[in-house]
Design goal:
The protein has helices at 9-15, 18-24, 71-79, 83-93, 97-100, 110-139, and strands at 32-34, 37-40, 53-56, 61-63, 68-69. It is an alpha+beta fold and 140 residues long. The protein has a five-stranded antiparallel sheet with strand order 1-2-3-4-5. A hairpin with a 2-residue loop joins strand 1 and strand 2. It is elongated and about 75 Å long. The N and C termini lie far apart (51 Å). It binds zinc ion. Residues 42, 44-45, 53, 64, 66-67 line the site of zinc ion.
């Protein structure tokens, strides 16, 4: 993928749940579920401690005695890759490419679109400020 095809991290984090990622690694059956939590041995650091690894389903986050994070951090650690690379992997595994990669102008994703709109608004706002600053300079 080219650099211009950057993945929207925030959108990936909203689209992919930690449960989906754990299922991808076939880890769900190895963890103990208690309501909103899953606990078990840490798939990243190993060891025998069955409560070392903890997941909050509602927060979509995980932590162990040594580290913590979101879905991106988890994949980055499991695959020993950077977060951008992890984001690309998630896009591939969960078929998110249509919505989240590059081409923001053509995106059908509401998150990406609302962000795009915000960017446009901000840009327009800046232009107005610059224009009015120029005008006042001309007048003074
Ligand atoms: Zn760990």
């Amino acid at each position: 993928m080219s650099k211009s095809q950057s993945v929207d991290f925030r959108a990936v984090k909203r689209k992919v749940t930690i449960l989906q990622v754990l299922e991808h690694y076939d880890l769900v059956s190895k963890l103990h579920r208690n309501g909103d939590s899953l606990t078990g041995t840490c798939p990243i650091h190993g060891g025998d401690n069955k409560t070392a690894f903890h997941i909050s389903i509602s927060k979509n986050r995980w932590n162990c005695f040594q580290c913590s994070g979101n879905v991106l951090d988890f994949v980055a650690k499991m695959e020993k890759v950077s977060r951008p690379k992890a984001a690309h992997l998630l896009v591939q595994w969960f078929n998110l490419s249509r919505n989240l990669v590059a081409d923001r102008g053509q995106s059908n994703d509401p998150i990406t679109n609302s962000r795009l709109r915000k960017d446009i608004t901000l840009q327009a706002f800046k232009e107005v400020i610059i224009a009015s600053a120029r005008r006042s300079r001309v007048l003074s």
